[in-house]
Amino acid sequence: MKIYMSGKLVNEKDAKVSVFDHGLLYGDGVFEGIRAYNGRVFMLDEHIKRLYDSAKAIALDIPMTPESMAKAVVKTCRANDIRDGYIRLVVTRGVGTLGLNPYLCKKAEVIIIAAAIQLYPKKLYDDGLAVITAGTTRNLQEALNPRIKSLNYLNNIMAKIEAINSGVMECLMLNPQGYVAEASGDNIFVVRGNDLITPPSWCGALEGVTRNVVMSIARDAGINVRESVLGRYDIYTADEVFLTGTAAEVIAVVNADRRKIGNGKPGPVTRRLTRLFHEFARANGTEIK
Ligand SMILES: Cc1ncc(COP(=O)(O)O)c(C=O)c1O
Question: What is the pTM of this model?
Fold first, then answer.
């Protein structure tokens, strides 16, 4: 596998970061997870925009333009013959001292990995997921805004540990006020009649690229889409609940904190939006060749 690192493609075994890189020492950096479908990079400009916004929020200068970053992503996909795959774009603060001061890091490190995608088992899509509410709340906006896709994912990992320890794969994360923010690595949607509702990003969610695509596809399909504050009651009593994310795409949640959602099976709106999303993803994107 060829990895893009420090401005060039290198062999996987040569793609190494320093032990003094602040990405490693402090989780100081930002990242993106992007999909390629059918020889095209899906929503590349949107992911790159979010990457640069995240970097700006943590005062990290990415040492290349968004246009050259987009080209580097495509080039890395091409070098690895990716048609359907998963791309991880990482920007670390770079090599510094053992102290916190980020301004002593000379240059941010840009890493691009384009690999095969590890798909979730089909059974999870057919049957839907069970979730619990994690006791770990989503980061406080004023402390580390969840809109920043930073390399520090401990908040999400702590919640994920709770889910796995409880025998489920995902969890609801609440914001510090007790409202539903998102899942540990996905956005959340609720279906109620002909309404599709998702929490606004100020409620503690990452503004997901898949979330935005699903909202626009749903609007085009005549569904009433809105952002609204949601509590756990809204989840328990919804007709349908689903999660969205780059890796998971659209996946039903059929049980939350041992309450069956709807009839306990992926519902018609979730199935319809899953189908529409697949059609859209396979037909849109930046050509790799
Ligand atoms: C915390 C969190 N929320 C939501 C998402 C979904 O975002 P996207 O659809 O852009 O992958 C992700 C994945 O990147 C995530 O890590």
Answer: 0.97
